[in-house]
Structure formats: structure tokens, C-alpha cells
UniProtKB/TrEMBL annotation:
Stored PANTHER family: BETA-LACTAMASE-LIKE 1-RELATED, PENICILLIN-BINDING PROTEIN
Source taxonomy: Eukaryota, Sar, Stramenopiles, Bigyra, Opalozoa
Domain of life: Eukaryota
Domain Beta-lactamase-related intervals: 3-302
Species of origin: Cafeteria roenbergensis
Family (UniProt): Belongs to the beta-lactamase family.
Pfam families from the UniProt entry: Beta-lactamase
InterPro entries for the chain: Beta-lactam-related (IPR001466), Beta-lactam/transpept-like (IPR012338), Beta-lactamase-like_AB/R (IPR051478)
Name of this protein: Beta-lactamase-related domain-containing protein
Length: 437
């Protein structure tokens, strides 16, 4: 197996274990390509998104607008299959391509003689046929110019992203070092040629390349990165979103993501299986991080993915929090504010630093102590603090603090830079406490 973890467009770590080829003793390396099965559907979807971004098609148009000889009998009414429905597994098409189909012309002729299993736009119904049509039709009928699915993926995705261990061309020595697929009993699995159905599951890749692909998609949703000029930002952002939510509240479907809720996050993920090989691509746009794993043997990739993210996410988010301290903490310059303040000698206030909470504490005449945290990064105003309720306070003090709400404390500096005064306009309006010590 091989796994890669990415963050903000880079690769954090690559893990490898075991053999790419047991007979030769060749071990899996960081760049070893594996067959990725249905993860190929992500590449097919990206081709459709690029064609839509270029104005060649519209996602909500019936496929027949761009491909007039596409038709299928709809026993549920007059609805027509759209490009978006193909990507979302909601076309209603049968799962597999008609037997013996070897070309797009043959597929269109055969599909025209079949009927939909579900109404277009209804509940998801997994269809390899739908993605075979999407990838082949975009390449051959929409873009044309002699393109095939393989050549268009090369030109529109692999080359722009520099995916050096990804492709769809097989032959003697191609790709070099391809991990041998193995059956559950350890015997090599025969090579499985998908032929015309290739856009649904025929490609190979490495986890690092898959992480780079996921990173480029997340960047495109922000109008950034190597795909930003190829996929419109609104389309790339919609590509991250669920298209259908299951009643269980945990699993959702996208284009063609098989999503799952993990704690506070929604994992966008796609698994792939082809005899003897398994692959998974998964990512969390909100954290700008991705995980991809490949195996040359049958695995339950989704159970493993749930376990892997369950172990990874808590520590990862803790690490991010440590790298980016809370903007509500005063930091190492708390001494700038500590001292005695007075209003005309009639009313005194002190500001101390409480090590236990890591906060400043403002006390007026010793009557009430108010915990305050640096809110400058939030408000955009320097030397601004906000009252808050720390955990573990006795009820009476909690009640006092609750009474003043989220009051602001403003510190002012003189020309030389030191803090010279403090005002609390909402708590003691009009009073300016000059710093004494």
C-alpha cells in the first residue's frame, strides 16, 4: 500500500508498505502507480466541468443538446438526462454498459434501445455507464478534434497539473513499475481491460498525484491554483458541495463524491476498485488537506478511510491551532497593559495577568474582576480587549461577568509607544483611567 497526506497544495508525508511485485521483490515506493478503478470518475467529472467552464456545454442542459443522437427511453415521464445528473449518479441510467459495446457510436445505438431505471434527478443510482458516456462524449463529441478520453485527460488534467505517475495508457513497460494487482488469496489478478467503459474506472495513479489533484480542485474553488483558468470558480465551488443527502444524516453524494460526516467536517471522497487494486481519494476543503491511499489487493477503503481520518483529524486540527494561536490571547506583550490606572484620583483600576487563564484581569476599585482577552485581530483596532467568561468561575462571579456582557476595554498609547490610559465606554462611559504605574 501507499498513502499520501497533503496540506495547502503541498505533500506533508508519503507512507509506503509492502511489495509492488511479490515475485520480483520490488517494494512499493512513493511514486509507484496503482490502478485506481472508479477514482477515474473524478477525472471524467473534471473534463465535464472544464467543458462547461469553457461554454461548450451547460451542466443543466440535457446531454442531447450537445449530442443529438443521445437518447434513452424514460418510462417515468418526459424528463431528459443532463450532464449534472450524469456526474451526480442521478441520471437513472442502468449500472453497466450494454454488453459488447466497443465504441461511442455503438454505445449510443444500444442505449437508445434501453430504458431508465429511475427518473432523472431522482435518488442516486450508481452507473458506470453514465460516467463512460460522460467521459467519452465530452472528449469525442463536445471537444472533438480527434480527441479520445485518454488524450483529453492528458491534455486537460495530467499535463497542467504535472501528474507524472498518472495515465490511461497500458502496454509493455507502461506504466513503469505499475503495482501488480493481487487477489485475496495472494495470487496475481489477471489484467482487466475496461475498453470503452474506461472513463468509469480504467486509470492508474499514485497517492501523491491524487493528493495534488485534490489540492488543485480545492484551490480552484477559491479561484486559485493551476485549474483556476480552466474551471470557473462557481463551478469548482459547486463541485465541493453535496448534491444529495441520505436520510441517515451521515452520508451524502456529490459529483461523484461519496461523502461522509466526520466530527465537525464533511469528507469529500471517492473510492475505486478493479480486480486486485483499490484506491481512495479524500479531502476536506475547509482544512485544505487531502489523503489518498492505494492498495494492490482488495480492501474496504471506506471503513479504512473513516478510521484513518478519525485518527488524523483531531491531532491535525490541534497542530493547526498550535501554529495559529487564538487572536483573543494577549501573547508575550501582556506587560504593556499591566499596572495601576486612576480616574482623577477618585476611582482606581488595576490590570493584572492571570497565568492560569492566560488572560488579563481588570479590577475596578476591587469590586469586580473582569477577564479580558486581546480582540485586536478580530476588531481590527490595536490594543482592544473584550470581556469573557472563563471556565470554572464561582457562580456569583460568573453572574457579575454575565451582567456586563461582551464589554470592550480600549488601551491608548502615547507618542513614545507605552500604554498611557484605559477606557471602558460601555461599562463606565466618559471615564478615562490614566496609567499611574
Amino acid at each position: 500500500m501507499s498513502a499520501a497526506v497533503g496540506y495547502r497544495g503541498g505533500i506533508i508525508q508519503v507512507f509506503t508498505k509492502g511489495f509492488a511485485n511479490v515475485s520480483s521483490g520490488s517494494k512499493v515506493g512513493a511514486s509507484t502507480p496503482f490502478r485506481i478503478g472508479s477514482v477515474t470518475k473524478v477525472f471524467s467529472a473534471i473534463l465535464v466541468l472544464q467543458a462547461a467552464s469553457a461554454g461548450m456545454i451547460h451542466l443543466d442542459d440535457p446531454v442531447a443538446v450537445a449530442v443529438p443522437d443521445f437518447s434513452v427511453f424514460n418510462p417515468f415521464g418526459s424528463g431528459l438526462v443532463t450532464w449534472r445528473q450524469l456526474l451526480a449518479q442521478r441520471s437513472g441510467l442502468q449500472r453497466e454498459a450494454p454488453f459488447g459495446v466497443n465504441s461511442t457510436d455503438e454505445a449510443l445505438w444500444a442505449v437508445a434501445k434501453t430504458f431508465l431505471l429511475r427518473a432523472p434527478g431522482g435518488k442516486p443510482s450508481y452507473s458506470n455507464l453514465g460516467f463512460a458516456l460522460a467521459g467519452n462524449l465530452v472528449a469525442e463529441r463536445v471537444v472533438g478534434a480527434g480527441h479520445t478520453f485518454t488524450s483529453l485527460v492528458q491534455a486537460w488534467i495530467i499535463e497542467p497539473l504535472g501528474l507524472s505517475h498518472t495515465g490511461n495508457v497500458y502496454g509493455p513497460g507502461t506504466p513503469a513499475g505499475l503495482a501488480v494487482p493481487y487477489q485475496a488469496n495472494g495470487d496475481p489478478s489477471p489484467f482487466y481491460d475496461l475498453g470503452w467503459v474506461g472513463p468509469a474506472g480504467s486509470m492508474y495513479s499514485s497517492p501523491s498525484d491524487l493528493v495534488s489533484l485534490a489540492s488543485a480542485l480545492m484551490q480552484a474553488a477559491k479561484g486559485q491554483g493551476p485549474l483556476a483558468s480552466r474551471i470557473r470558480q462557481d463551478i469548482a465551488a459547486a463541485f465541493m458541495d453535496p448534491d444529495y443527502r441520505n436520510p441517515d444524516g451521515l452520508t451524502l453524494f456529490g459529483w461523484p463524491w461519496e461523502m461522509r460526516v466526520a466530527g465537525s467536517f464533511l469528507l469529500r471522497r471517492k473510492g475505486g476498485n478493479i480486480p486486485g487494486s483499490t484506491a481512495l481519494i479524500s479531502f476536506v476543503p475547509e482544512l485544505e488537506t487531502a489523503v489518498a491511499v492505494t492498495w494492490n489487493g482488495g480492501q474496504d477503503e471506506f471503513t479504512l478511510a473513516t478510521e484513518a481520518w478519525g485518527a488524523f483529524l483531531p491531532k491535525f486540527t490541534q497542530a493547526l491551532a498550535a501554529l495559529q494561536p487564538s487572536p483573543f490571547r494577549p501573547g508575550p506583550r501582556y506587560t504593556d497593559y499591566v499596572g495601576l490606572y486612576s480616574f482623577r484620583g477618585l476611582l482606581n483600576a488595576t490590570v493584572l495577568f492571570d497565568k492560569a487563564s492566560g488572560s488579563l484581569v481588570a479590577s475596578v476599585q476591587g469590586v469586580i474582576s473582569i477577564y479580558i482577552n486581546d480582540a485586536s485581530a478580530i476588531t481590527g483596532w490595536p490594543d482592544t480587549f473584550q470581556a469573557y467568561l472563563p471556565d470554572g468561575l464561582v457562580p456569583c462571579l460568573s453572574a457579575e461577568l454575565q451582567a456586563i456582557g461582551d464589554e470592550y476595554f480600549f488601551f491608548n498609547r502615547g507618542q513614545g509607544g507605552p500604554v498611557t490610559s484605559m477606557v471602558v465606554p460601555g461599562y463606565m462611559p466618559g471615564l478615562v483611567f490614566r496609567r499611574v504605574v
